[in-house]
Amino acid sequence: MRQAWLSELLLLSGLVFAALLLAALFGYFGWFMFAALVGFTFRHLYQLYRLERWLRVGRVRNPPESWGIWGDVFEHYYRLQRRYYKRKKRLARVIREFRESTAAMPDGTLVLNSEFRIMWFNEAARQNLRLSSNRDLGQPIGGLLRSPRFKSYLDAGEFDQPVNVSSPIDDTRTLAVRLIPYGADQYLLLVRDVTRIQRLQTMRRDFVANASHELRSPLTVLSGYLEALADEKVLGEEWRDPLEDMQAQCQRMNTLVNDLLELSRLETEEGDATLEVAVDVPTLAERIVRSARAEDRDRHRIELEVISNAGLAGAESELYSAFSNLVVNAIRYTTTGGVIRARWFARPGGELVFEVADTGIGIDEKHLPFITQRFYRIDSSHSRLKGGTGLGLAIVKHVLQRHNGRLEVESTPGEGSVFRCVFPQQRARYSDAISSGSSILAP
Ligand code: ADP
């Protein structure tokens, strides 16, 4: 048994023994026993009073001196209290450091609770959004950033990417806003002023669009004269090859200018492609494959298999451009006699897929992350020779982004490649106007 309990028992037995002794000497057994127990109870009441007074003061102070079981109780409680205060101090320091570091951050930072109400914000957020502690703490963030884009961002619940909204205090400025979930239903809202980057991007886009547009007229004139000269019989035979070469180069520049214009148009269009128009993908795919065959003049076997009768909500011209770029690439990078197989089907989960598989030269794995970058070519001379501009897959990527889709690529060098445009189920549209049933368009 512990020492403290032993002393308590000894005290009680001492008192009882003394009472018995005194009763043996003087009689009055009951009174002596009563006095002994009152003494024992009084000791405990007194110690309880000291404990209550000490707790009432509430600060870390040396505990009252005592012995027996009360000495142990005071000691244990004192130790617990010290541990609690130490932990509290450490937590306060961590919170202070966190606040100091986020306050020093150049980006606006807000802490939101599970209902997206503002719980805390730093100095940059105060300036960017002109927040005030008294007025805005506890307010829902939706009331402050009223843009419909931000609202659909919150509703969608997908916070991997930031969303651009105009500043609530100056609509000429653009803020990139990103929500980061943490802990139990808490959110960190990061706000960055991207006005300068946006202006630079707009300038770059405008420049490319204007330059491409300006190049169009001189190119048309040049092509016209070259065509006339090619028909002219007065020029000698020695001019035939140079003229053909000049015409081919003019054609290449034309394609390049058109691709640049297409890309800058896709970049300029804000937001996602419309959900209202249903594009008849089976018919679109047939058109693409027919025109690819006409261009290819039987150098490859080009097949189309339409397994799904679904259409897609989106922009027809953009989808045409994306799908035909994949088919043209497959032809371009497959040697004569190879097979190109296009398929339109739905995955078991509901996603819709336009797939183009070829038996061509394939792509080494190390190039895969870069092939959708503008002007990225694995073999520039081969691409140029085949009429490539280096912009095809960049266009595909942009079109897919605008249709909430993604590009999947699988490839084995020397064996072939598979490119898949994958669209979410929400984009699927079914109507009687869309050709139905499974069909195979064999060559
Ligand atoms: P390009 O106009 O040069 O074809 P793209 O942007 O369409 O430009 O494609 C980028 C690069 O990706 C190409 O230069 C080529 O190296 C590679 N590539 C694209 N499609 C295929 C394919 N089906 N097979 C092999 N390589 C391909």
Beta strand count: 14
Distance between the ends: 97 Å
Strand content: 15-25%
CATH topology of the largest domain: Heat Shock Protein 90
Sum this structure up briefly.
By secondary structure, this protein is of the alpha+beta class.
Written description of the protein model:
This protein has 443 residues and is α+β, with helices and mostly antiparallel strands. It folds into four domains: 2-97; 105-193, PAS domain (Beta-Lactamase); 197-268, Signal transduction histidine kinase, dimerisation/phosphotransfer (DHp) domain (Helix Hairpins), CATH 1.10.287.130; 273-441, Heat Shock Protein 90 (2-Layer Sandwich). 52% of the residues lie in helices and 17% in strands. The strands form three sheets. The chain has a six-stranded mixed β-sheet, with helices on one face. A five-stranded antiparallel β-sheet has the order 2-1-5-4-3, sandwiched between helices. The N and C termini lie far apart (97 Å). The mean pLDDT is 89. The structure holds adenosine-5'-diphosphate.
What key phrases describe this protein's structure?
443 residues, alpha+beta, Beta-Lactamase, Helix Hairpins, six-stranded mixed sheet, five-stranded antiparallel sheet, 13 helices, binds adenosine-5'-diphosphate
